[in-house]
């Protein structure tokens, strides 16, 4: 075959490839319509939200793994030994007193109700609380 014809064939192939690439470049400069632009935008948003959801799932899984590993390594809470039996009272009629209570402006029934409410709200047993005084405050 003639070398000039081979050279001419290669030039023709190269020019065809150049023509295809220029048509692709020409399509890149075209303006999209509203429908196409909204479609592309929604597609991109969907991709972004899918990636965010995948990241969310990974964080949750990592937190669950770390949390279970932390719970497994944490020492068991020390349970207090059985409370010692209360010493037998020598005189059943004698009551325990931890000092004196001064009532200022309120009766014993109201003071007892206040002490019970404080004990209930704090969760401390009434026999462990020490009240020094209870004063009635008048509203003006």
Features:
mainly alpha; 2 strands; single chain; two-stranded parallel sheet; 58% helix
Give an account of the 3D structure:
- With 140 residues, this protein is mostly helical.
- Among the domains are: 14-72; 102-135, no CATH class.
- Helix content is 58%, strand content 4%.
- It has three helices and two strands; from the N terminus they run H-H-E-H-E.
- It has helices at 3-28, 34-73, 108-122; strands at 102-104, 133-135.
- It has a two-stranded parallel sheet with strand order 1-2.
- The chain is rod-shaped.
Summarize the structure.
By secondary structure, the protein is mainly α. Helices cover 58% and strands 4% of the residues. Among the domains are: 14-72; 102-135, no CATH class.
Compile the SSE list and pairings.
Elements: H1 3-28, H2 34-73, E1 102-104, H3 108-122, E2 133-135
Parallel strand pairs: 1-2
Strand content: under 5%
For the terminal residues, how far apart are their CA atoms?
A: 120 Å
Task: State the shape.
Answer: rod-shaped
Q: How much helical structure, as a percent, in the residues?
A: 55-70%
H/E series, N to C?
A: HHEHE
Sheet of most strands: 2 strands, parallel
> Largest sheet, order of strands side by side?
1-2
Continuous helix count = 3
Q: Look at the structure and give the mean pLDDT.
A: 78
**What low-confidence regions span 5 or more consecutive residues with pLDDT below 50?**
none
Q: Based on helices, strands and strand pairing, what is the structural class? A: mainly alpha
Mind telling me the C-alpha Rg? 43 Å
Q: What's the count of strands?
A: 2
């Amino acid at each position: 075959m003639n070398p000039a014809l081979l050279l001419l064939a290669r030039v023709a192939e190269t020019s065809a490839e150049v023509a295809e690439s220029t048509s692709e470049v020409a399509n890149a400069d075209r303006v999209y319509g509203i429908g196409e632009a909204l479609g592309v935008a929604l597609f991109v948003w969907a991709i972004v939200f899918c990636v965010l959801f995948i990241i969310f799932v990974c964080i949750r899984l990592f937190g669950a793994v770390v949390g279970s590993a932390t719970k497994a390594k944490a020492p068991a809470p020390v349970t207090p030994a059985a409370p010692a039996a209360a010493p037998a009272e020598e005189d059943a009629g004698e009551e325990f007193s931890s000092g004196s209570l001064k009532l200022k402006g309120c009766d014993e029934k109201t003071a007892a109700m206040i002490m019970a409410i404080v004990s209930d709200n704090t969760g401390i047993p009434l026999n462990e609380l020490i009240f020094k005084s209870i004063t009635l405050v008048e509203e003006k």
